[in-house]
Amino acid sequence: MRLAFFYPWLEGVPSHARHLCDAVARRGVRWVTLSREGPNKTREPLVSARYPRHPDRLMRADLTDLDAFLRAEGSTVDALVMVGGFSPFNIGAAVLARRYRVPYVVSLEGTVAPFAFAHGRRRLKHGYWRLVDRWILSHAVALRVLSDFERDCLLALGVRRPMVMAAEGPEDDALAAFASYGRVRTVARRFLFLGRLDVWQKALDHMVAGFAASLRQRHEGQQLVLAGPPLDGAVERLRHLFAREGLVEGQDVVLKPPVYGAAKWELLQSADVFLHPSRREGIPRSVTEALAMGLPVIVTDETNLGTVVQQAAAGWRVEGTPAGVTRGILLAMAAGDLEARSENAARLARTTLSWDAIGEAFMSGLAGVLANGRSR
């Protein structure tokens, strides 16, 4: 089998796509990645890369080269995989794939969560969905979904294409860091958010309000730490939220700059529970890193990790509201099994969320879909 991966963005193949390609290649499947050259390089010899010959910032060359590739080699490709929703490049890729009779798969990466439609240019998004994305998905041989939550979102939107469930896992450096930075956790008092300080997407407003409510209901010296690169105006907005909720910065809540390398593992080591109540995500890398480090997590369904965390007893799945955040914090503080949940978190990162397990799930699902298509 031979697959092609199309990702027409300036930063090149994203890390999670590189891992998926490598994991599938270890099963004997050949890939070719069609993207810009970037920092993430595939490692398996069965994965080759093609870069635009004359790249331009508007990325017209990406579609031109995809056209040339499918015209010359489309008959040798079993499926073309494209990423994301609300992408004008996917229109061109879908049209070209149909022109050259190449089945294609769309991996939506969290773009169909209800909050995604309710934020920003809502009318434009709904119009684009009805006129463009529904057409793209209706002709896909399959959709790659990250979770049962994403599957249910698609079903609620009336999408009835075959779906292949395959999540995303942690990076190798997070798995390796556990040996030096893992620790036993028996009590939950220090709660950590690590990631981009995007108040809306990461639901930091829900986080702050929910944490403040936990202090009012059960004050045992718990502290919330938020670390990461801020969007413009995010720090000022967060400080406004702290003041509104009566939180004392430096005591109840702490803001930290981005951390990397050993400093990141030390920060994760210092925390008792990881908190990530997103409104819309693919799968947040920081949550998979926390799991790999043996850190129990409080997550919403919108992280696409809620179900597997709940099933593995590796943390708590909560509603995406301030009350949901409060409930998760109080459950963590009252938990008598935090040590077991910590062990479950590390195990989840190395089993269900291992890239080999994800590659197996992706290929077994896709092979079944393609076989059914050929039998018809």
Itemize the secondary structure elements and their pairings.
Layout: E1 2-7, H1 15-25, E2 30-35, E3 47-50, H2 60-73, E4 79-83, H3 88-99, E5 104-107, H4 114-118, H5 122-138, E6 142-145, H6 148-156, E7 163-165, H7 172-181, E8 190-194, H8 204-217, E9 223-227, H9 234-245, E10 253-256, H10 262-270, E11 273-276, H11 285-292, E12 297-300, H12 306-311, E13 315-318, H13 322-334, H14 338-350, H15 355-375
Parallel strand pairs: 1-2, 1-4, 2-3, 4-5, 5-6, 6-7, 8-9, 8-11, 9-10, 11-12, 12-13
- Inertia-based shape: globular
The number of domains is 2
CATH architectural arrangement of the largest domain: 3-Layer(aba) Sandwich
Strand elements, count: 13
Strand content: 15-25%
Structure description:
It is a single chain. The protein folds into two domains: 2-169 and 355-375, Rossmann fold (3-Layer(aba) Sandwich), CATH 3.40.50.2000; 172-350, 3-Layer(aba) Sandwich (Rossmann fold), CATH 3.40.50.2000. It is 46% helix and 15% strand. It contains 15 helices and 13 strands. The protein has helices spanning 15-25, 60-73, 88-99, 114-118, 122-138, 148-156, 172-181, 204-217, 234-245, 262-270, 285-292, 306-311, 322-334, 338-350, 355-375; strands spanning 2-7, 30-35, 47-50, 79-83, 104-107, 142-145, 163-165, 190-194, 223-227, 253-256, 273-276, 297-300, 315-318. The strands form two sheets. Strands 3-2-1-4-5-6-7 form a seven-stranded parallel β-sheet, sandwiched between helices. Strands 10-9-8-11-12-13 form a six-stranded parallel β-sheet, with helices on both faces. Helix 8 (204-217) packs parallel to helix 9. The model has no long low-confidence stretch (mean pLDDT 94).
